[in-house]
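Hi C.,

You asked whether I'd gotten around to modeling the 101-residue construct. I have! Everything is below, sequence then structure, no commentary in between.
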Amino acid sequence: IGAFELSQIREGLHTLRHVGAYQSSRAVLTEDDATRGVKCTATEYNLFRFAGVQPLMGRTLQPQDSVPGAEPVAVIGYKLWRAAFQSDPDVVDRHVRINGK
């Protein structure tokens, strides 16, 4: 569903506290000259709170990340952290490109 449809659903909710949307796809992750295809999920910021999970390092998405013009951010999973970043604890705040951005 699209953003408009989701906003309409939210307006009609009376018994649910949280509802969100996500979309899974594939992306190209590039750092320096290394490129790899990865599974990814585009989601609203509240997914982590809804799921009740916290990151091992860094932070989850925040409402201000959705503001037009905000700097793009990503949350990476444990398997990707190990495979693409060799479990480097300094990965937080590292700049990479996802689909060229």
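If it helps when you're writing up: The beta strands are 22-31, 34-43, 97-98.

Thanks,
B.
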